Amino acid sequence: MPSASSLLPQAVRFASSALEAVNQAQALVLMTEWTEILKSDWQLAYQSMAAPRLLFDGRNALDAEAMQDVGFEYIGVGRNG
To answer: Is 78 left (phi over 0), alpha (psi -120 to 50) or beta?
Structure first.
């Protein structure tokens, strides 16, 4: 990351973990099916985010109902609602 941080604008924020990356974020865009991401503590992620807490699942990798139960406004590619 040090090399990338010197090349990218200051508007780009670097994080050492997925949870750190979503801290105070209003939206989360999921574009991977990596096990470490899918098995994240979604309740903790939700709590660390800021409203409106949107979760855009670009892989349809998560259980929509479970994410809505956590509190996310869940948007899955090709899914209604």
So the answer is: left
Determine if the pTM surpasses 0.90: no
Do 4 and 31 contact (CB within 8 A), yes or no?
no
How many domains does the structure of the chain reveal?
Answer: 1
Phi/psi of residue 57, each to 5°?
A: -95, 95
Range of the domain at 39: 17-76
Pairing assessment for the beta strands 73-76 and 27-30 based on DSSP bridges = unpaired
In a domain, 5, yes or no: no
**Quick one: pLDDT at residue 79?**
66
Q: Are the C-beta atoms of residues 62 and 28 closer than 8 Å to each other? A: no
